Amino acid sequence: MAAPSAFCLWRALAPRCGWVLPGLEQRLAVPAAVSPATARPYAAAAAKAAKKDAKRSRQEKAKEAAKEKPLPRRRPLMSKPVDDVYLTWLYTRPSYGLEQAVGMLKRFQELDFTHPKQFVYINVFLDMALQKKKKVDPFSSGVALPHRFTDEVNKVLVFTENEQEAEVAREHGAAIVGGVELIKWILEDEIQADFYVAVPAIIPKLIPLRNKLKKKYPSTRRNSLGSDIPKMVQFFRECHEYSVEDESVIKTRIARLDMPTEHIIANLKTIIQDICTFKPSNFDPIVQRLVIRSSTSEGLLLNLDGILPQVEKAEEKEEEEEDAADKDEQKPVQESIST
Questions:
Q1: Contact, 234 vs 197, CB < 8 A?
Q2: What does the alpha-carbon distance between residue 134 and residue 70 come to, in Å, rounded to a whole number?
Q3: Potential cystine with 259: which of 7, 51, 203, 263 (Cβ 3.0-4.6 Å)?
Q4: From CA 130, how far away is CA 135, in angstroms rounded?
Q5: At what angle do helices 261-276 and 309-338 cross, to 10 degrees?
Q6: Which class for 102: exposed (0-12), middle (13-18), buried (19 or more C-beta within 10 A)?
Q7: Cβ-based burial of 161 (10 A; exposed 0-12, middle 13-18, buried ≥19)
Q8: 231 vs 174: CA distance, rounded Å
Q9: How many CB atoms lie within 10 A of CB 240?
Q10: CB-based contacts of 205: which residues, under 8 Å, 6+ apart?
């Protein structure tokens, strides 16, 4: 019985005498930590929603401030610079006539002491849009220039199983001539050519090459499928090839700078006229902008007047036909009134 009474006495005297069990003060002073697992589940969601509301309010305030802020006024572009040195972005880009631009390129070469036989290039910017969301598919083509400017000859492959046709193709300069035995070598990239020509009799056997050759697959649209082997071989050996890049741009050589001006102009117009055939004339012209340059000069924007004669003539013919139809409709009315 002595032990319990002694324990009760200690409990009564401990607070007065400053007696404390080891660690008791720390346990009484430090509150128990609440674990994340026991926290209320909606507390995190409420904090997240508050952050979203604050972010949304900041965005709305920024939009309102942007609306209230006046837009900077852009100065209208001036037409012609007065001084020799000027800021190009303050003036509209000048455009030149075709003959004037070629003369300027020749003058640049003389002033810069560059190579006189450098190539002349054109950059053609196209409008590929058709009805609604339809567009002209990117294309490639070959054209016979009236004035050749290089001695390079294209490598032409002819598909035929007729021995006489094969002999004719070889005589006229075909690099490779053969039949279905060539299919395997072409698929394995053992044989390659710049152009592929075929006669109609063998075309059903060449279907395995359609995905491989793609745009170079023989077709009547490209004039690479037919019976006149000498004509096809001669055309594709000497033709100038161009293709659409980046869906709406054509970049190609057209001549050498030391050629006569009229020869350069004739080559340019031949290529432009061929490009215009890939879009129906009842739509806007496919050629939107045309830039000419040499290997070492800046690009000169060309005035399209006179370069797109086919489109202009087609529009004039349509207007004349409409006027003629209106006159024909008015004639019977006038005759009935006179009677």
A1: no
A2: 39
A3: 263
A4: 5
A5: 60
A6: buried
A7: middle
A8: 11
A9: 21
A10: 179, 180, 183
From first to last of the 339 residues of the chain, give the pLDDT tens digit: 445 555 454 455 555 545 555 554 554 454 545 555 455 555 666 777 777 777 777 777 777 776 666 666 666 777 777 777 878 778 888 899 999 999 999 999 999 999 999 999 999 999 999 888 889 999 989 999 999 999 899 999 999 999 999 999 999 999 999 999 999 999 999 999 999 999 999 999 999 999 999 989 999 988 999 999 999 999 999 999 999 999 899 999 999 999 999 999 999 999 999 999 999 888 889 999 999 999 999 999 999 998 985 544 444 555 555 555 555 555 444 444 444
Ranges of H-type helices in the chain = 2-17, 24-29, 42-68, 98-112, 163-171, 182-187, 210-213, 229-238, 261-276, 309-338
Q: Over 262-303, what HEC string results?
A: HHHHHHHHHHHHHHHCCCCCCCCCCEEEEEEEECCCCCEEEC
Instruction: Give which of 67, 2, 66, 237 is closest to 142, Cα–Cα.
Output: 237
Question: What distance in Å separates the CA atoms of residue 196 and residue 158, rounded to the nearest whole number?
Answer: 6
Separation of CA 182 from chain center: 34
φ and ψ at 175, to 5 degrees?
A: -75, -40
- For 50, the token pair is 């508050």
In the numeric block, which tokens belong to residue 86? 């000027």
Which two three-digit tokens encode residue 281? 């004339």
Residue 40: what are its φ and ψ, rounded to 5°?
-65, 140
- Name the H helices within 145-189: 163-171, 182-187
Q: Is 260 helix (H, G, I), strand (E, B) or coil?
A: coil
As given in the structure block, the two tokens for residue 61 are 């305030």
Residue at token pair 């070598």: 185
